[in-house]
Amino acid sequence: MTTADPSPTTGGAGAWRLGLLLVAGVLVLIDMYLIFGYAPTERSMGIVQRLFYFHVPVILTSFLSFALAAVGSVLYLVRRNRAWDRLAYASAEVGVVFFTSAIITGAVWAKPVWNTWWVWDANGTLTFVLWLIFIGYLMVRAYAPDAERGRRWSAVTAIIGAATVPFVYMAADWWGGLHPERVTGPGAQGSLEREMLLTLLFSFVTFIVLFAALIAERYALRSDEDAIEELRLAAA
Amino acid sequence: MAENPTPDATRPGHALELRGVSKTYGTTHALRAVDLDAAWGRVLVLFGHNGAGKSTLLRVAAALVKPTAGSVTTAGFDADGNAGRVRAATGYAGHGSLLYDDLTPEENLRFYARLHGVPDPKERAAEVLRDVGAERWAHRRVRGLSNGMQKRVAIARALLHRPALLLLDEPDSGLDVQGQAFVDTVVRAVADGGGAVVFSAHDPARGLASADDFAVLRGGRIAAHGETGSTTPDEIAALLSAPAEAA
Amino acid sequence: MRETLRAALTIYAKDVRLELRTRETLFSVLAFALVVAFIFTFAFEPSPQLIASIGPGIVWVAYIFTAVLGMNRTFLLEHERGTLDGLRLAPVPREALYLGKLLSVVTLLVTVEALMLPAFLVLYDLSLFNVWFIAIAVAATVGIAAVGTLFSAIAVHTRAREVLLPILFLPVALPLLIGAVTGSREALDGEGWSGMGGWLQLIVAFDIVFLVLSSLVFEYVLEE
Q: Per residue of chain C (224 residues), what is the pLDDT tens digit?
């Protein structure tokens, strides 16, 4: 830690981000208690059902990250303002982590319950496809001949990826409909108990705050990187 | 787009106007705040070492590369938003020949003429092939042609749509004395017809002899510019070999 | 619009002429398709019952891998000699460049797919000479080319072009693959429109959306 930090994200903005991270941390701790201490054990699925409180909010925030990346990408191409690219990039980075967690928790949950690692229904397929598109998004940036084209090409990737969402959803849904052994999602398990519902709602809030905090961190990092790049350009 | 800008020395403004043009790739500068004009009816030569920004400047002028900052006005059109008009008004020949190896020069030129909306592609292709002295090779595959002949056809390609502004990136490279004389003729013909030419060169003596104006690029900046009569090949060579800080 | 079409057809005619002269791309891509189809023979030990259920899957996996290879080559040929700059210098809308290359890709892929029909017949006793299958195949190939042409224009400029194209292209093309495989199976089962009509509609909708969207963003891909 140097005393003279020229980055534009210190000071008020830095404190704001730290506060958000702290709030997210506290929420995660409370959420842990609710999931493992407060919510009752589900009768038919047993202990593994507790993954549900992670999995569902993580899936939701993953989809949210993709929506953010797509919106940021469109606005970047139209406005050519690097801030929108930073938002899209941060969303893709955080999104990859969230999608990966969603896929892992989904698989661990599905195996004992449905005796399959992954359920290829519309949501399951879409989750996988968007995860792959985000990986492509990050690869395009890494392999582009220069940063400027990396930004534009990754934006194109996110936009094309977003356009494929309804098609993947419909195709997987119809395709799944042809398979009678298809299992329905957790919503069809009957009504949740009050404690379960509360825990789930709290989990939603927790993961959305955590997601926001991580996006803010990555966004700030990208801002710093852009600032450094500008300084290096000025010095070169 | 179908309009064929007739070169006209009396037209207002410059053939090319760069104002504060910068182009960066990551953290390297290809061009830094370049101001440069090329006048109608005149030939401008660009000197500079490899990496000094000559190619980038020509590619920016041809609307192949979008500058990071600054404004480019080519043949009276602001490149930002009028890229199509700029492309119609400029002819560009770079390091690659931009020719398809497995087509003949005639097929290549007919293809590009059609793509540029030239009225009678077949007729025009034959015409420019004659102009560059390549009609004997018109129906052989480009792959089998000598470098010099490919270069002539590449320049013919740039002339197809009678551009008002001709941009040539090191047209001399790979050419023998005869070929160099040919380039001089082409360049002079465009300028005398009221158009303008900007080309880059390595050899100060050759470059100065063929041009009316010169500019020296160093590290992406204009280090010197003026009329060719006001300098000597030795001065240019000294400028090029001086340490970068002195610029 | 007319000018866009004219320029696109000019590029397309040039590609056809080049390909007829060299026959490089068609034969190498066709050879690849044959190898893929051939390898599957040993992966599955095909019986008539098995082919009835997985035959369309084999066909489409072979088609889509072949498409990746073919699309990679189309832009690579323009990139290697720098002729892509020659196209970019043309005073025509960027959509025209996209459409021209798209037409070339569709022609290449449909030709290879057609030439593969006898191969599938011999290797798997799988007859694909069916109007509905052909309708599905052409529609899906247009979609494949719509997305693939855009992504190969990106991939060709990168260090990892052979890997990047499939990574970008395959996830987006998944709905096409699902639609083509399932629709083909319905078509081959003799279901006709009632069985595969929905899939064909999905594929055609995909084609339209991605043709429009890709031509709109192509300019951002080409810009330097």
A: 889 999 999 999 999 999 999 988 999 999 999 999 999 888 877 788 888 889 999 999 999 999 999 999 888 989 887 899 999 999 999 999 999 999 999 999 999 999 999 999 999 989 999 999 999 999 999 999 999 999 999 999 998 888 999 999 999 999 999 999 999 999 988 877 887 889 999 999 999 999 999 999 999 999 88
Looking at residue B170, its amino acid is E
**What number is the ipTM of this complex?**
0.94
Q: How far apart are the first and last CA of chain A?
A: 25
- For residue C213, the chain A residues in CB contact (below 8 A) are 159-160, 163
User: Which residues 4-43 in chain B show a CB within 8 A of chain A?
Assistant: 24-29
CA distance B230 to chain A (A): 32
Residue (of C167, C11, C26, C223) closest to C110 by Cα position: C26
| DSSP labels, chain B | --------TT-SS-SEEEEEEEEEETTEEEEEEEEEEE-TT-EEEEE--TTSSHHHHHHHHTTSS--SEEEEEETTEETTT-HHHHHHHEEEE-SS----TTS-HHHHHHHHHHHTT-SSHHHHHHHHHHHTT-GGGTTS-GGGS-HHHHHHHHHHHHHTT--SEEEESSTTTT--HHHHHHHHHHHHHHHHTT-EEEEEES-HHHHHHH-SEEEEEETTEEEEEEEGGG--HHHHHHHHHS-GGG-
Under 8 Å between Cβ of A53 and A203: yes
Q: What is the C-alpha separation between B19 and B72, in angstroms, rounded?
A: 7
Tell me, what CATH number does B189's domain have? 3.40.50.300
Structural domain total, chain B? 1
- What residues of C are in contact with residue A152 (Cβ under 8 Å)? 220-221, 223
Q: What is the pLDDT of residues B138-170, one digit of tens each?
A: 999 999 999 999 999 999 999 999 999 999 999
The minimum CA-CA distance between C80 and chain B, rounded to whole Å, is 10
Range of the domain at B36: 16-96+164-246
CA distances from A223 to A155, A209, B69 (A): 18, 21, 20
| Secondary structure of residue C67 in the 3-state scheme | helix
Contact C93 B92 (CB under 8 A): no
- B166 interfaces chain C, CB cutoff of 8 Å: no
C-alpha torsion C136→C141→C146→C151, nearest 10: 130
